[in-house]
Amino acid sequence: MTKKALIIIDCQNDFFPGGKCELVGQVESAANIQRLLKAARENKDIVVHIQHFFKDKYAPFLAEGTIGAELHDSCKPVEGEHVVVKYTANSYLNTNLQQILEDAGVEEIVICGGMSHLCIDAAARATVDLGYPITVIYDACATCDLEFEGEVVPAKYVQGAIMAALSFAYGKVITTEEYLAV
C-alpha cells in the first residue's frame, strides 16, 4: 500500500471569520480538512501541519506570536503529527518538511489548506519538483479576492485559475468526496 502524507497548509486563525485576512470559503474548507484529517488518522497516514509566520510584529496577518498566527482549533495537531513552521510561501524552503517525508517513506502527497493562490500553489509545485505525485483537494482549500490592473478578481475565479493550472500539469485536483471515495 502506498505511504501517503496529508499536508495541511496554513489552517490558521487569521484566515477565518474575524481574522485579519479572512479567506472566502474558509469555514467550508476547514470542515473538509477535518474530514481529511479523520481519514488520514484512521489510515495511519503521515500528517503534517504547516504554520506560516511573518517575523515582523507589524505584519498585516500571521504575525509570529499572535493569536491570529496560531493553528485553528478545527485542524489542530494531535500527538505524533508534525508541525512545520515556515516563513515563505514554499513549505519546503528552509524547513524540515522534505526530511520528514523521506524519513517516513512517503510516496504520495495530499495537499489542502490556504491560500490557494500562494502557499497551496507553491507547495504543490515544489512537491512535484521533488518527485512526489500530488493530489490537491480543492474544496479543502480557500483563497481570497485579488486585484490586478485596478480590477478585483473574485476568489471564485482565483481558485478556478489556480486549480486549473495545477490539474493541467502537476497532479490530481479533486473534491474531498472524490478523495474519500477511493
TrEMBL record:
GO molecular function: hydrolase activity
Domain of life: Bacteria
Limits of the Isochorismatase-like domain: 5-148
Xref: Pfam families: Isochorismatase
Keyword Cell wall biogenesis/degradation assigned: no
Keywords, alphabetical: Hydrolase
Keyword Transferase applies: no
Protein name from the UniProt record: Nicotinamidase-related amidase
Source organism: Pseudovibrio denitrificans
Source lineage: Bacteria, Pseudomonadati, Pseudomonadota, Alphaproteobacteria, Hyphomicrobiales
